[in-house]
Each structure stands twice: as structure tokens, then as C-alpha cells.
User: What shape does this take?
Amino acid sequence: MDGDEGHGAHSGHAAMDMTINGSAMDMNVINEQVRRGVWERWRIRSNQGAHPFHVHGCSFLVEQMEGAAATPDKQGWKDTVVLDDDDWSEIVVRFDHQATEQHPYMYHCHILEHEDRGMMGQFTVTDSTG
Assistant: This one.
């Protein structure tokens, strides 16, 4: 590492585009809408390094890690799943509480510097209709 980078060991992160689903956090954007009380399967993949992915407003079950059944340490109710670079996981999740556009839930990387670089999103939870 040469001394001309200016930010020491963190210079690589400063140049990264930290996103989820290709979008950096925008407080004026609702990224997803989910239905209250409906089980969903989410596939979460990391292609920007290792990340602990955290979801607000729920607990979820880790069903798969890279296509294999969840190991005992990953079983049980979670609110965060840790992914290494190029890993993926499938979680099963259900949201039982409403989240409006004025008060949405969030999902994000649980590394503060990554959150600050935009690795977050917002979602609403609405009632299911017929």
C-alpha cells in the first residue's frame, strides 16, 4: 500500500459503490413492498465482500447456505445472516406488523461503514387483499 491513497486502510471502501440490488440507500425511495402475514423466501447474495445482512421487523429462518441445508449454528430464529464474498443464502420470512411509507422497515449490511456507503434499503408491509 502506498501512502498516496489518503485514507489509509479504508481507501478501498471509499471507492466502492455499496448497494443492495444495484441501488444505494435513498431515504425518499421505498425499495420493496411485502404483504403482512405471508411467508416469503428471500435469496440474499453477496458480491461485494463479506456482509452481515440484517432485516428489521421480523425474525427469519435460514433455509440454505450456498444450496446446502443450514448448519446447526445457523438454525433457529435469526435477524441477521452472515455471507462471505460470493456466498448466497435463502431465508424464509414473514412480517406480521405493518410498516407504512412514513415509517418503513429497513434491511442493511450490519457493518456501519457499509451502511454509511449506501448498503441499505427500505420496505413497507401492507395487508394482504383477496
